[in-house]
Write a structure and sequence with these properties.
327 residues; alpha/beta; Rossmann fold; 34% helix; globular; binds glyoxylic acid
Length: 327
């Protein structure tokens, strides 16, 4: 029997590639760059499976070219890059990688929180530049993390994993969701529900863990920065457009908030130039899930879903949920 043809738009950890090549006819875009859109359109024509990245916009045009597609497997948990309605219309399964990257992403969110509060990138730069001449009583004084109030926007898997870390630091946890969660979940995570503005008003740190959907686009913008404490720090490891990045620059410039730490950007990979000049800003290049273990798990997960659909004619295990909590 002829093997089904699958396109993979970027090299992934080898165990995933090995699992795929055993069962399918895999075409991999081997260059160390995002696969150009024209190349995806050309190459998807004879494929029944497509494995893509969060930076590949998979829309009607691509699905129209890939008329034989049965599955689009996104190598990410967030899937705002895929036109889900269009895929549903065409009976194409869409899968993602939930669960495996929850703790890894929460680790990064907490690392960013501590980095910006304790000014670690500034300190690192100082030592490397040979400026460390002796202990100083008044230099690089940051903000305590322990015992502070952490506001978590989006209390799903990653938001709750962040809460578990924050409890170790004796932080008080507030969470916001459009709908209040059960008291069982609240008790389990010792988290108190707040409406968004109340949370912003009370929190010393605010961390975002929502998917990007219409309702979360620019969820944090000029009005919200005005509500936040002047001493507050904002952390984002979700999707860039949840924050109005230009309004963020203005808020930082005007000292409406104390600082921010970002792993994601509104016009990724572009970053507002002024952010790069501010010492109270920590920047990372979208590395939330970037550990060897997690990226390997994610590669196995996309391979498993593609094989389930194309070889075993089964429903994939990690189909996206279209009944998003936050819709
Ligand atoms: C990364 O941002 C992901 O959605 O997996
Ligand atoms: C994402 O996986 C989330 O639910 O936080």
């Amino acid at each position: 029997m002829k093997k089904p043809k699958v396109l993979l738009t970027r090299i992934l950890p080898q165990p995933g590639i090995d699992m795929l090549t055993e069962q399918v006819d895999l075409e991999v875009y081997e260059k160390n760059e995002a696969m150009p859109r024209e190349c995806i359109i050309e190459s998807v024509r004879d494929k029944t499976g497509l494995i893509c990245l969060l930076s590949d916009r998979i829309d009607k045009e691509i699905m129209h070219a890939g008329t034989n597609l049965k599955i689009i497997a996104n190598y990410a948990v967030g899937y705002n890059n895929i036109d889900i309605a269009e895929a549903a219309k065409r009976n194409i399964y869409v899968t993602h990688t939930p669960g495996v990257l929850t703790d890894t992403t929460a680790d990064l969110a907490f690392a960013l929180l501590i980095s910006v509060a304790r000014r670690i990138p500034e300190a690192d730069k100082y030592v490397r530049e040979g400026q460390f001449k002796g202990w100083e009583p008044m230099f690089l004084l940051g903000t305590d993390v322990h015992s502070k109030t952490l506001g978590i926007i989006g209390f799903g898997r990653i938001g709750r994993a962040l809460a578990r870390r924050a409890h170790g630091f004796g932080m008080r946890i507030l969470y916001y969701e459009p709908k209040r969660l059960s008291t069982t979940i609240e008790k389990q995570h010792s988290a108190e529900y707040r409406m968004l503005d109340d949370m912003l008003r009370e929190s010393d740190f605010v961390s975002i863990h929502v998917p990007l959907i219409d309702a979360t686009h620019h969820l944090i913008a000029e009005r919200e920065f005005a509500v936040m404490k002047k001493s507050a720090f904002l952390i984002n490891t979700s999707r860039g457009p949840v924050i109005d990045e230009r309004a963020l620059v203005v808020a930082l410039r005007n000292k409406d908030i104390a600082g921010c730490a970002l792993d994601v950007f509104e016009r990724e990979p572009a970053v507002e130039q002024e952010l790069k000049t501010m010492s109270n800003v920590v920047l990372a290049p979208h590395i939330g899930s970037a550990s060897v273990q997690t990226r390997t798990q994610m590669a196995l997960m996309v391979a498993e879903d593609v094989i389930a659909v194309l070889i075993h004619d089964q429903k994939p295990a990690h189909e996206v949920l279209t009944d998003l909590r936050l819709q």
